[in-house]
């Protein structure tokens, strides 16, 4: 987001990959759609998902105790916007009486939705500032189409269902390098 005369931080590489795919018509809409979950996973895996899940599944029936534990967990995640957002969403889920895997999934789904909105606005702003408004409009149209096909609930379940905890390094963006994998003619 723009903060007056100060420049926004440069885009992280996974969001830059998504923006490049969305901005270039050489990439099919399906390729833009496959890059969005990749970028989201790369961002949200900064969050202490295992710890959030443990707290949400803890033995306490009192939401206040869960909230205190989540707030204490925040101290370990200083400087990570995605981690703090996931904790905020977990606190909100605990306040709403959700707990266990249902609460963890709801928190992760809400965090993914918030990260998506924020990142897409940031990309559009970047293109508005660095390129023409026509380019920004084209980018917005393609990103909106990808966002409409995204199911944050399914993505949250996918992240939580993996046998071993996912790491940011284990998530890779599919590269299409074969001759038959090029743009459709």
The SSE order reads HHHHHHHH
**Main sheet attributes: strand count, strand direction, barrel closure:** none
Mean pLDDT: 83
Count of extended strands: 0
Percent of residues in beta strands: under 5%
Helicity, in percent? 55-70%
Gyration radius, rounded: 18 Å
Tell me the structural class: mainly alpha
**Ranges with pLDDT <50 over ≥5 residues?**
none
How far apart lie the N and C ends?
37 Å
Number of H/I helices: 8
Shape: elongated
Characterization of this structure:
There is one protein chain. The protein is an all-alpha fold and 185 residues long. It is 65% helix and 0% strand. It is built from 8 helices and no strands. The chain has helices at 13-23, 29-44, 49-56, 63-74, 81-95, 100-130, 133-149, 152-161. Helix 2 packs across helix 6 (100-130). The longest helix is centred in the middle third of the chain and has 31 residues, at 100-130. The protein is elongated and about 55 Å long. It starts with 12 loop residues before the first helix and ends in a 24-residue tail after the last helix. The mean pLDDT is 83.
């Amino acid at each position: 987001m723009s903060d007056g005369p100060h420049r926004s931080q440069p885009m992280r590489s996974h969001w830059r990959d998504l923006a490049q795919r969305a901005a270039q018509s050489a990439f099919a809409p399906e390729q833009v759609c496959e890059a969005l979950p990749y970028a989201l996973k790369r961002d949200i895996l900064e969050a202490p998902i295992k710890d959030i899940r443990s707290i949400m599944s803890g033995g306490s029936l009192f939401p206040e105790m869960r909230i205190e534990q989540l707030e204490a967990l925040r101290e370990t995640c200083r400087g990570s916007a995605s981690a703090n957002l996931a904790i905020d969403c977990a606190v909100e889920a605990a306040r709403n009486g959700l707990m266990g895997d249902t609460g963890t999934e709801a928190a992760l789904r809400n965090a993914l939705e918030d990260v998506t909105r924020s990142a897409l606005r940031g990309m559009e702003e970047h293109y508005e500032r660095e390129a023409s408004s026509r380019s920004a409009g084209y980018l917005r149209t393609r990103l909106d189409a990808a966002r409409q096909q995204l199911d944050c609930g399914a993505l949250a379940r996918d992240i939580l269902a993996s046998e071993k905890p996912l790491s940011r390094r284990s998530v890779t963006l599919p590269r299409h390098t074969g001759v038959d994998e090029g743009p459709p003619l």
